[in-house]
Amino acid sequence: MRDDLTNRGYLPRRNPAFHVPAAASARSEAAPRAVTDTTGAASPLDAYRVAKEPYYRAVADEIALYEAAYSVRMPMMLKGPTGCGKTRFVEYMAWKLGKPLVTVACNEDMTASDLVGRFLLDANGTRWQDGPLTMAARFGGICYLDEVVEARQDTTVVIHSLTDARRVLPLEKKGEIVEAHPDFQVVISYNPGYQSLMKDLKQSTKQRFGALDFNYPEHEVEAEIVVHESGVGLDAAKKLVHIAEHARNLKGHGLDEGISTRMLIYAGSLISRGVAPLAACRVALVRPITDDPDMRNALDSAVTTYF
Ligand SMILES: Nc1ncnc2c1ncn2[C@@H]1O[C@H](COP(=O)(O)OP(=O)(O)OP(=O)(O)O)[C@@H](O)[C@H]1O
Question: Domain CbbQ/NirQ/NorQ C-terminal spans what residues (predicted)?
Answer without folding.
Answer: 222-305
